[in-house]
């Protein structure tokens, strides 16, 4: 495309709340035939809210444990942690002795004679904490409602085994326009994939809501970039759409990188295109814009 066509394209993008940082994205956007979407904050609102807190300990033990849970999540920067903190009424402050954040898993801290953990099932497994059948059943039921389930557990220092203290269900609604945007991409013959660090059950429920048939759950940030690389190795021109720090490697790897304007600064720094309104319908619009830009000179 000519410099003029690029300038026109960038201008039209801006009018549509699509910020385009380089000419290349406009040149190749129309050739994209695979799109990888992050789930949380990209397909969903990214503003999680706790809907259920189910204790598996006696009522009189709950206030003290709730204070520990609060202290743990208060130190985490994960959006799920913010939801937990917002849900709990601030109780007497608890002084945690250590704090560890486990990527893709959750957080843990030492308090008195125990290690306290909040996170996903993998975090439980890694700490030799069994999930009782009844809790597993409840978790599955909540996950099938597209909710993310997080476990609060404890292992006493001398004990060989720990116990699950509570499960929390967290909802993060799909954005109103996500399905429409994905339908449009699919109808254009573009292969659409969803990637998430969340568990398989929740991922499947969300994918179904928006009409995505191909998705991968429980992926680590490096897995996201590897997935993009695999598609490219199979000859695909890949656009990656994400909002988080954990998407930045995949964004850097993609042929066309698109960040959500309401997402993390790091994602926006890496991505060559930013969708100011964080609305997925801007993705087909951006690809259309590329088509128009290139057509000008042909
Ligand atoms: P994503 O943001 O896509 O879910 P992450 O890798 O950030 O991916 O997290 C993966 C999973 O780890 C979350 O879905 C959640 O189950 C668990 N997790 C991570 N951090 C926390 C936290 N602070 N509190 C509770 N669970 C957490
Ligand atoms: Mg995200």
UniProtKB/TrEMBL annotation:
Taxonomic superkingdom: Bacteria
Subcellular location(s) per record: Cell membrane
Similarity section: Belongs to the cation transport ATPase (P-type) (TC 3.A.3) family. Type IB subfamily.
Protein name: Heavy metal translocating P-type ATPase
Organism: Spirosoma linguale (strain ATCC 33905 / DSM 74 / LMG 10896 / Claus 1)
